[in-house]
Specification:
The protein has 101 residues and is an all-alpha fold. The chain is built from two helices and no strands.
Length: 101
């Protein structure tokens, strides 16, 4: 009768060890999943930011050319400057929204 008691306790200990190992493994898998998703989001936001910076750089280069050729009036330059500021604000808002996710 004492042997049956020892077998039952041993089985409970094994079950407890299995459950602990299972939950630790599950927690590790969930953590890896969310870390991977966060990494992908960060990579995408960096690519988007890089593309936007390249587009802005090209546009600024075009404006420099126009300014050097005297085809752009002061009013047109101020209008473009305001438009550029609005676009940059939108980009900052989108990037902050991506980073918050």
């Amino acid at each position: 009768m004492n042997t049956n008691n020892n077998n039952k306790i041993f089985s409970k200990v094994q079950l407890f060890q299995f459950l602990v190992a299972f939950f630790v493994t599950a927690f590790g898998i969930i953590t890896a999943y969310y870390t991977t998703i966060a990494g992908i989001k960060l990579d995408l936001s960096k690519k988007a930011e890089s593309e936007m910076v390249n587009q802005l750089d090209k546009r600024l280069s075009n404006i420099e050319i126009l300014l050097n050729q005297n085809f752009l009036t002061k009013d047109e330059f101020h209008h473009f400057s305001e438009d550029l500021q609005k676009r940059l604000t939108k980009i900052e808002y989108q990037l902050s929204a991506i980073n918050k996710e």
